[in-house]
Amino acid sequence: MKDIIAAKHIIEGLIHNLNNPLNLILGFAQKLKKSHPDEKDINIIYDAGIKMNSQLKELSASLYARSFAIAKELNLADWLSQEMVFLDNHLELKHSIRFERKDLAEDSVMIESSELALALWFEEKLQKLLRSGTRGWIRVGTCLHEDKPALYIKPESVMSEEIRELLLEDNDSSLYLPAEQVLKSHWNAEIKAICGVIS
């Protein structure tokens, strides 16, 4: 838990320290754009700065959201969108796998959990896939199984029994999950969440 808090503060500080020089660059580039509107290089620099600024804001919002340990009702699709922003900065995952987002549930899927517990569960599954040698595209999304909300993780390649066991763990070994899990966080709070894998 202390490691998570320390990492959060370091990343927040890094975002803050990057924002200061970035705002100076953006301000200077904006002035140059007004005086030299046809200069392509200035526009490229300005657009790159705007993109960096947007990415930093999204990362900051994602980091803030996933730091909460208190269980509450969450929109699973919204949570997954935030988590995808955060994982885009996870270099080990980014250099090994690529995500395809496809929500199978037509309506909002609500779940009782905490952002942090859900993030730890989700990233643990992805790390297990990496350790098993899985590479390439992985489809992730929300779904309903037996009218219960679920997350699913499906590698593009056909899953071997070994990979399926890694993902299913102690849950129902049927092809369709989820089974209800209790996610235990570092502070020993039990948080019920319905999570799963579709093969």
Give your account of this protein's structure.
This protein is of the alpha+beta class and 199 residues long. The protein has two domains: 2-65; 72-195, Histidine kinase-like ATPase, C-terminal domain (Heat Shock Protein 90, 2-Layer Sandwich), CATH 3.30.565.10. Helices cover 51% and strands 22% of the residues. The strands form three sheets. A three-stranded mixed β-sheet has the order 2-4-5, with helices on one face. The chain has a two-stranded antiparallel sheet with strand order 1-3. It has a two-stranded antiparallel sheet with strand order 6-7. Strand 6 and strand 7 (190-195) form a beta hairpin. Helix 1 (2-35) runs antiparallel to helix 2 (40-65) and helix 2 crosses helix 3 (76-87). The longest helix has 34 residues, at 2-35. The protein is elongated and about 60 Å long. It starts with a helix and ends with a strand. The model is unreliable at 1-6 and 170-199 (pLDDT under 50).
Entry summary:
With about 200 residues, the protein is α+β, with helices and mostly antiparallel strands. Helix content is about 50%, strand content about 20%.
